[in-house]
Each structure stands twice: as C-alpha cells, then as structure tokens.
Design goal:
The protein is α/β, with parallel strands linked by helices. Helix content is about 40%, strand content about 20%. Keywords: Ligase.
C-alpha cells in the first residue's frame, strides 16, 4: 500500500511541510495537552511556524551548511526548531536538555555548531561556563523567558525569533539528498560519543518506505512518548506527520491515562514501555477475586495453545518452519477446536483490555531492543497489533520490520524496501548459510554517511562495499526474517568457554511477576549471576497468599538494611530461585549453562534519571556493571 502523498521526488525534509499544509491544512498536526498553556497546531500553522523560524535564523546570519546545536525535549517547539533550522539550510546536532553538562558541551564543540538552541534558561545556565571558548555566535531560547540583555552572545527567545521571521522572506536553501541533515550522537557508554551523520536522503528513505509497516490515514491519532531527537521516534514522526496524522505528546507519567483519553490509532515504543503496560494489566488481574483470577488464567492458557496452533498452521511460528504437512493439519484442527473458547475469552476479558488502552489501536511498533516472547504472546492473545522493528541510529534507523501480513513473532521482520541484510562469521567475515547465526551487516540508502570527523571509526563501521557492521548477532529465516540473538559486545563468556547471550535470558526471566528488571552477569565466571530489581507489589501479594508478613525495606534503605530484611529470608530467596529456574528452563533453546546460579536484589530501578538506562530505556550494561562491581564480585566469591 503506497503513501497518501508521494515524496519520492523531493530532496530535503523541509520540502514535506508545504505539501502537508496544502493537503492537510486544517487537520491538527501537533497537540501538546500537558504544556501550560496547551498547544495545538494545524498543518497550515505548523508550516508557517517552521518557515518563520527558518527566516528568523537566516536574518541572524545562519547560513547554508551551518551547524546548529539543538538541546531540548519533546514539544511542538522542538519540531519547529528542528525543521526550521533545516529549512534555513543548516544541519542540526541534537540531544536532550536533560543530558549531562559535559556531554552537551562535548557535542557542542565536536559538532562545530555556531548557533545554540536550548530548551530554557535552566539549560543555558548549565552550559554557560563552557560556552565562552566555543565559536557560538547566536543563542535561541525555546521558552518565552526574557533573555539576558548583558549576555556577550546575542540571545533571543522563541517569540522574538518568530517575530523576526514573520517580517522577512525565506531564502530557499538548495539542498540535495546527500546534504547533511543532522548529527545524532551515540550514547558514549564505552567512550566519547560519536556524531552519526544522517543526510536528507537517509531520512527520506524512512519517509518514503515506512508505509510498508504502518498505513496511516489523515487525521489518525498518534501518541508520542519517546525522545523526539532520537532517530527511532524522529523518523517515525517525520513519516506519520508526512501522512497527515495528529501527534499528541505524552509522558511516562500520563501515558496510561492518555491511552484512554486520546484513543490512538498508532504508536511507536520500546520494549520497556510495552512491558510496563503488560505489568499494569497483570496487576489488575492480581487485584481481582481468586475465582476471577482462575478464570483469567484458564482463558490465557487456552488462548496461548490456540495462538500457537494458529501460528504453526499458517507457517508463522519461528520454531516450526520445518513442520510437516501432517503437523500443520493437526495444528489447524486444534485451532478450530479451541477457537470458540478463545472467542469467548475475547468477549469476557480481552475486549475489555483493548478498551482499557483506547480501543482503536491499528499499529503498535516496538523497537530499540528485543521484545520478550511472553509479551509478544500476550499481545497476540488479546489482539493488540504489536509489530517489531529493528535498526540503529546509524541506519536512520529502520532496516527491518514485521508487518500485519507477515508477523513472525520472535523475529524483527523482513528488510524494508531498498535494504539488504547479510549474516557473516564475526571472525573472518565469510557469508554464512541461511539459518546460521553470525554478525549482522546492513546495506541500503538509509545507512549513515559516517561518523563526524572520525574517518577511522567510519572505516571500521562501513566496509568498501557499503556494508555496515551493526555489532548485533542474528540469523535469517527461510523467508528472510531477521532474528536478533544479542549484541556481539554483550556476549558473556563463561570460564568454560561457553558464549551466552544475556538478552534472551533476561527477557525470559522478567516474565516472572516478581521480577521487574534484571541484568545477567558472569563474564569469566563458572556460571551466570543476575542483578534483580524485584516487583515489591507482587511480592507482598504473594506473601499474603502464603500467610507471611514481610518486612520490606524502602528504596532509600542501605545495602546492610536490605541484606537483613525479609528480601533475604529463606522463603523469598527460594521463591526467586524457583522463578529463575522455571523461566530459564522454559526458554526455547535452553542449555544447562543458561542457569542462573546466584543473584542479588537491588531496590533502585534502572532508569534514565540515575544514568543506568538510555533514552530509549535500554540498560547501559557497562555503567550498571561499574556501579555494582563490588556487589557482582561478592556475588561470585561468596557462593
């Protein structure tokens, strides 16, 4: 199915917005109901504001190919600044205003930016001491705060810039698909951040090809929760807005309420988001009467059997591609027999779950990491359309995605158009046979131009034939679906030489209602261990069912207090051992070396705020390992 509008002939992203204003003028483009005051812009208004921002910058000598640093977070003004700076002819370097001061100053210097756009005075104050030695000639506040008139660098607020722009005329900046559009800096958990150079052509690949995954209609509602400056959310926004959708900004705090309030048709998220939604639903189940809980469990177990039979019958099961015709016939018969009870479960339970998240979802895309199999199964049972995609910042980002017509659970889907995937031996780069696991290489028009001012790093990442080394391990199904098994650098090597991919084990274990988050450790050890953030609410409910009274510490408790609390009592420790053992053994492809022999419980969740997760809610393994190194060492030494 092709896009509503054809953008194949345009050369730069800003060329999209006059077309959307012409075709979707009165439709709401951006909606920020939680700002003070709330902001709502139609496509006609959005284009006018982008143009005014661009003219304002041009009036202040921002020229073609200038670098503009944009340090701000989700809001309509972020989008206006992003596209306004590109429309002026500049390339922007983007990051969250919440990022560490030293990281922002590094990006500001490394990107050669001469203009700085910041969220507010607070962000500017954080950076002020480091700006003097940099070639910054202009500062723009995206807030309406009064700029410092005594500042040595010319500073305007948002409205002052827009007023300037409204009085001028746009000088059309001639850009090609090879023109640099943006620099997105990698997280830098293993060294200094690298500026990923994405061209207009790279990003337009996403605009013109993501309709192979999502087929939006003008006026469809979209919830935006991921950071707008991140490549995943950013490309999704460009695509969805190019098709006339209404995008509403939400947050972790308001997300579940906004699902019911705005009833979205489409949303992109990361596994942690879908896990949080799942856990909220499970919590509601646990709060119901024992009879009702047994009813829910009965239907979920029955529906799981029905879904698996359906997958096998339709050749959509990752583990059953080689099933015989007879096995598929048996699966079809089983699905037919179970279908009436599954439909009854939908009427009694699953339909209410869909209504609880708005009732209108057509597409829920999960990216930025693997989706645990129990989440994939649950969302399929309740008929919430979760599709999984794959990609990296360096690939703009989408290279693969599942679709409604070809949704192989457990995979990341087939390549999107104009994309090639190759699996090679990590040691000698020889191409591996189909089905064999190796290093994932990608080639396509969405692959970055390189790392900014880092030619050696670029040569290591992209070979002379244009193949980009993703650093991920995976394999291809007979139908070219990509199955990611882990990061090459995340692989844990035990002292017996066995290589363990931690992500799949973690995904299996967080299926336990008592495990909220978890990170597997064990490099160079005899066996695996784990750092576990327990789900205290579920633990309390379990204790009541066992007629136990738990003395649980609060989040501010010291390590000594935690060790002497009931978290380390024999019943609780036995519960966690049983949960880990069961979930690991139930995982497809289980091997004895996958067993977790030791673990420690920690009460501080991995989060963005404490620096233990990326902006897309992936655990920063090196950072967590460093923070808990003493605990990890003790975990293995005492056992």
């Amino acid at each position: 199915m092709k896009s509503q509008l054809d953008y194949s002939s345009i050369n730069a992203l800003p060329e999209i917005w006059p077309l959307t204003a012409q075709n979707f003028g009165d439709i709401i483009a951006l909606d920020d109901p939680h700002s003070n005051p709330p902001v709502s812009l139609t496509y006609a208004q959005l284009y006018q504001q982008i143009k005014n921002f661009a003219v304002g910058l041009q009036t202040l000598e921002v020229k073609l190919s200038s670098k503009v640093a944009l340090f701000a977070d989700n809001s309509p003004r972020w989008f206006i600044a992003d596209q306004g700076s590109m429309m002026a002819g500049a390339a922007n370097a983007v990051r969250s205003s919440q990022a560490d001061k030293d990281e922002l100053l590094y990006i500001l210097a490394d990107s050669d930016s001469t203009t700085l756009i910041v969220q507010d005075q607070k962000t500017l104050k954080k950076l002020r001491s480091g700006i003097d030695d940099l070639p910054i000639q202009l500062i723009i506040l995206l807030s309406d705060e009064a700029p410092d008139q005594e500042a040595p660098i010319k500073t305007l607020n948002f409205q002052q810039l827009m007023d300037k722009g409204s009085q001028g005329t746009l000088a059309i900046a001639t850009q090609t698909k090879d023109s640099l559009a943006t620099l997105i800096y990698t997280s830098g958990t293993t060294g200094q951040p690298k500026g990923v150079m994405l061209s207009h052509g790279n990003l337009l690949h996403q605009v013109t090809n993501l309709d192979s995954v999502i087929q939006p209609k003008p006026g469809d509602r979209v919830l935006s929760i991921l950071p707008s400056w991140h490549s995943y959310e950013r490309s999704a926004e460009y695509f969805l807005l190019s098709q006339g959708c209404t995008m509403t900004y939400t947050s972790i705090r308001t997300f579940k309420t906004d699902l019911k309030r705005f009833k979205p048709h489409h949303m992109v998220g990361v596994p942690r988001l879908w896990e949080s939604l799942y856990e909220g639903i499970q919590k509601q189940f646990r709060e119901q009467s024992p009879t009702r809980q047994k009813l829910v469990e009965f239907f979920l177990n029955l529906s799981e059997r029905y879904i698996l039979a359906q997958r096998i019958a339709k050749n959509l099961s990752l583990e059953h591609f080689h099933a015989s015709s007879f096995e598929r016939l048996l699966a079809r018969l089983q699905a037919t027999l179970l279908s009436p009870l599954h439909i009854l479960g939908d009427k009694l339970i699953y339909g209410k779950i869909r209504q609880g998240v708005g009732g209108n979802f057509e597409t829920m895309v999960s990216g930025g990491g693997s989706l645990a199999k129990h989440l994939d199964m649950f969302y399929e049972i309740v008929n919430l359309p979760v599709l999984v995609g794959y990609g990296l910042t360096e690939t703009s980002p989408v290279t693969n995605a599942r679709t409604h017509s070809h949704n192989i659970r457990g995979s990341s889907g087939q390549p999107v158009p104009e994309t090639e995937i190759c699996i090679v031996d990590p040691d000698n780069r020889q191409i591996l046979p189909q089905g064999q696991r190796g290093l994932v290489l990608v080639r396509g028009s969405q692959v970055m131009q390189g790392y900014y001012k880092k030619p050696e790093a670029t040569r290591k990442a992209i070979d002379p034939d244009g193949w980009f080394d993703t650093g991920d391990l995976g394999w291809l199904t007979p139908m070219q679906d990509l199955v990611i098994t882990g990061r090459a650098k995340d692989t844990i090597v035990l002292s017996n030489g066995e290589n363990i991919e931690p992500q799949a084990i973690e995904d299996a274990c967080i299926r336990s209602p008592y495990i909220d988050q978890m990170m597997v450790v064990g490099q160079d050890q005899k066996a695996l261990g784990a750092l576990i953030v327990p789900n205290l609410d579920a633990l309390v409910t379990w204790a009541k069912s066992q007629q136990l009274t738990l003395n649980l510490p609060d989040a501010s408790a010291s390590r000594e207090e935690i060790l002497h609390s009931d978290l380390y009592s024999q019943p609780v420790q036995s519960l966690f051992r049983q949960e880990l053992s069961r979930e690991v053994k139930n995982r497809p492809g289980y091997r004895p070396d996958d067993q977790i022999k030791t673990f420690e419980l920690i009460l501080e969740p991995f989060s963005i705020d404490n620096g233990l997760m990326t902006q897309t809610l992936k655990i920063k393994r090196p950072v967590v390992t460093q923070r808990y190194q003493v605990m990890i060492d003790g975990m293995f030494n005492q056992k």
